[in-house]
Input
Amino acid sequence: TGCLGGSPGGTFVECDTIFIRENSDKTEQIRVYPNPSKNIVMVEITSKQNDQITFTLFDAMGNTLLKNSHTIICGAPNTITVNISKLNSGAYFITIQGKYIYHAAKIFIR
Output
């Protein structure tokens, strides 16, 4: 399938409602949307390497609110749907961490 290894690092591009991270070696793309959100947040990961990642959601005080493991399959978009409907309005943080992937982002809940 043309899957390649990669190393952490790269550049961040910030848009109005989407955060995209692309490595300079093009091994992954991560989208977190919509941002701000009210009920759900979608995390879409496309990678050229299979990976086992941990998705963690934190509040502004650093408390872990949600932590899940997901298998990332190379070559196709992998989508994680996060229900945030019971959270209060404000700023939250997510991390996505695996062997080949690391991403951190701030999300806003209306």
Residues 1-24 have pLDDT under 50 and may be disordered. The CA atoms of residues 31 and 61 lie 24 Å apart. The chain is about 0% helix and 55% strand. The radius of gyration is 14 Å.
